[in-house]
Structure formats: C-alpha cells, structure tokens
Amino acid sequence: MPIPHLPERPALRATLAALTGAAGVLVFEPFGLFWLAPGVLLALFWLWDSAPGARQAARESFAFGMGFFLLGVSWIYVSLSVFGGMPVWMAAPATALFCAALALYYALAAFVYRRWRPQGALGRALAFAALIALADWLRGWLGTGFPWLAWGYSQAPPSPLAGYAPVLGVYGLGFVLALASAVLFQVRRGALAAAGCLALGAALGSVAWTRPVGESVSVALVQGNVPQELKWRPEHFAATLVRYRQLVAENPARLIVLPETAVPAFLDAVPPEFLDDLEALALARGGDILFGTVTGDSERYWNSAVSLGASASQAYSKSHLVPFGEFIPPGFSWFLRWADIPMSEFARGPQGQRPLALAGLKVAVDICYEDVFGEEIIRSLPEAGVLANLSNTAWYGRSFAQPQHLQIARLRALETGRPILRATNTGMTAVVMPDGRVAASLPAFSQGVLRAEIRAYEGMTPYASSGNLAFLALACAALVVARVFRR
Description:
Blueprint: H1 10-24, H2 37-50, H3 54-72, H4 75-83, H5 88-115, H6 121-139, H7 165-186, H8 190-205, E1 211-223, H9 228-231, H10 234-249, E2 255-257, H11 272-284, E3 288-296, E4 301-309, E5 315-317, E6 356-358, E7 361-367, H12 374-377, E8 386-391, H13 401-416, E9 420-424, E10 430-432, E11 438-441, E12 448-458, H14 462-466, H15 469-486
Parallel strand pairs: 1-2, 2-3, 7-8, 8-9
Antiparallel strand pairs: 1-12, 3-4, 4-5, 6-7, 9-10, 10-11
Helix pairs in contact: 1-2, 1-3, 2-3, 2-7, 3-5, 4-5, 5-6, 6-7, 6-15, 7-8, 7-13, 7-15, 10-11
C-alpha cells in the first residue's frame, strides 16, 4: 500500500513531526506502550517519504527529534536547574541545545535517505530501518555517547521482539522494529512479513543462551533515599552514615550492595568506626558489603565502589564519566561558575577492570550511566556471573529518568544473559533476571532494602560474543540491498 502524501505546508508538517516525536516517548517507560512504536516509526517514515526534498525531510526529522528528546530527556533540565543550581534562563537553553544536537542525528538520517531514496517498497523500508538504527548507534558512540531512548529499549519484555536483543543487541532490535514498522504498509504482504518478525522474535526469546551455576546467594540491595539537596552537606553526613548502618544491620545477607556515593566523602575521611562496623556486619554473615564512595584525594579522585568483608577488600572506579556532571570538557570551565555540582571533576577509572570476587560470586560492577553502553558491559564476560549497577538518580527528581534507566538495565540483562543487581539511592532498586524480567523492585523515593536470592550465570549470548558487529553488518547489508533496489 503506497504511503499517501501530506499537503506541502512546511509549518503544518513540522508541527505534526514534533507532535509525533513527543508521542514516541509513550513507547518507553514509565508509559510502556511498546505496541505503539510501529505507529510512531511509520509516521516518521511517512514524513521522510512524502517530503518534497532532502532538506525538508531533514528539517521535519529534526522537528521530530526535538519533540522526542525535549519530552523524553526533560530530566536534564531538572538536573541542571533544580539540583545543579543553574539559573532557569541558562538551564532551559542548555537543555534545548543538547536536545537539538541529538535531533541532528535523525535529521542527517532523513537527508541521506532522500538523497538516494530507493524506488522499490522493500528497498525503502530497508533503508529507513538501517538509517534509524545507525542514527541511534552513532549518537551512542560519537563523543562520549548518549544512547538514551534508542528505539530498541522500547521493546523490553513483554514485547515479542525482545528475543532479538541477545542476538543483535539494542540497536539491532531497533533495526528489526523499524523494518517491521515500515514493511507493514509498504510491502506487498507486509502484514505477513511483520508477523514473521514477531514470530521469530518470540522464538528467539524462548532460547536459554546462558544457564545458572552454583548455589544461590542471599543479597540485600539498599535504597537509602537520601535527598539530593542534603546528600553532600557536611551537617547531614553523620545522619547518612547512621541510616545506612541501620539498614545494613537490620537486613543480613551474604552480599549487601549500597548505592553510588552512598558514603558521600573521600574514603580516607570516613570515620574508621563506621567502616569497622560495616566490615564486622559482613564478617558475621560470612559475606561482603559493596558501597559507593569517593577514592583518591582532592587533587585526583574517582567515583568508586569499595568492598569490605570476608573477601579481600576490592574496588572498582567508574571509567565512562558523565560530561558536565562528572567531568568538564575542555573549553567549558565557565560552566562551573553557573552550576553547583559537587565532585564534578572525577578522574577516569581504567578500562577493562576485572569483576570483583564477592560472596562467592564474580560480580562485574558498573556505576550509574555506564550501563547504557552495552559493548562496555560485555567486556567483563564470560568471567562475570552477575552484574551490579550502583546508581544515584536523585539528580533527576520525579522525572522519567528512573523508569527509563531500569528499562535500559533490562536490555543489558537480555544482551548479556546475566542477572543484574541495581542498588540506587532513590530508585529504582531492582533485581533483573537474564530474560529481562524484573524479579523484584522497591518503590521509588522510599527508604528500604530489597532482599532476594540469586545465582550466577555462565555462557555467552551471540551479542556478548560479538558486540555490535552483527548489527552493523546487518545494517550495511540492508543499505547495499536498498542501493540495488534504487538501481
């Protein structure tokens, strides 16, 4: 069925594009309307295909991206203004500029599509799917990368397409989603082809790529719910330590995990009696405690996770830092004059850090933002049997950030075939199983401890073995086929 053309009224088309982009946020958490994604992507395909030329297609795709990102990552404004202390007149334009930079990837994809648009319906569908997925991959790779809201994340379980994640990763999943959306109304027997994509995804979802090994281990994930505006205040430091010590004492487990910077101070400045108490509690249970803190000194310091207990003390230091939040890019030192962000110049931890040996498990640790980079997470495999993410998303208030971050973790579990332990300050603390299912979680913005039993997993998913190579090969092959159709 050919896609009908919209009226050639640029303002109307751009407005429709922006509204469609905003509607695209509904397919992600906390809304979770994954079944709406084909409609949103089909509307974007419609805009690309019916635009009079490449430049207008790019402008309309840019408008789509602005609507999509301004709503979807609006929490960036919250972190800059509400908790970062940046004036509204500066935080709002800064957020808009950031979203504009992200929207440019979709604008570039639309421009390329229209410059050499294939003539056949299948060729156009293949080109659209490849360019959308490559746009998401590029923005997750160039610079420090920001792959948040890549389309594949919307298809976490219960979507039948989730089965593609262990094979092709989140970007390959986005490719399949975009292709199924485009062929649905473009290709003869498109509904049958889309149904085939769903059926194959469901079949792949039934494959157990990894398997549990060893005995189960009791875990306790601590959610302190320390308000961000109080977290770094010296007068609140003692109360924070008392809170965490009490939660640990009341919830025995062989492995206890506290959030990112749960101890908001340099490790050397933490009262020795507090660390001795934590170690004694861990030793009494024959296990270990892992907590977030700051290591180093005022000249050079790291965002770290440190362990105490029956195993030798170990540490992991964050290597993929957040621009402006954890380091200031060259030429932007003026940023600190307008924002009040403590510990904003962390050093990078080394890449390729080994998993930590804790409570009889090999645990690959990552801190907050690091788990949005799938190819970095798989570096710890196959040695690691469990993944642990320590986060503090209190910076983003009661926004979409927390449920979106948990959805990202679910894709990491599918890609790696490993359970994930998420210990967060204000949410969402959870245990995610290798099939992407959330086994248990705590309500956001509540104080509590999530207790569970977990086992390590062994084996490798196809994605864990090859990373994004399979997706990139598939996308390039799709573009080659589309080029053949053009000729």
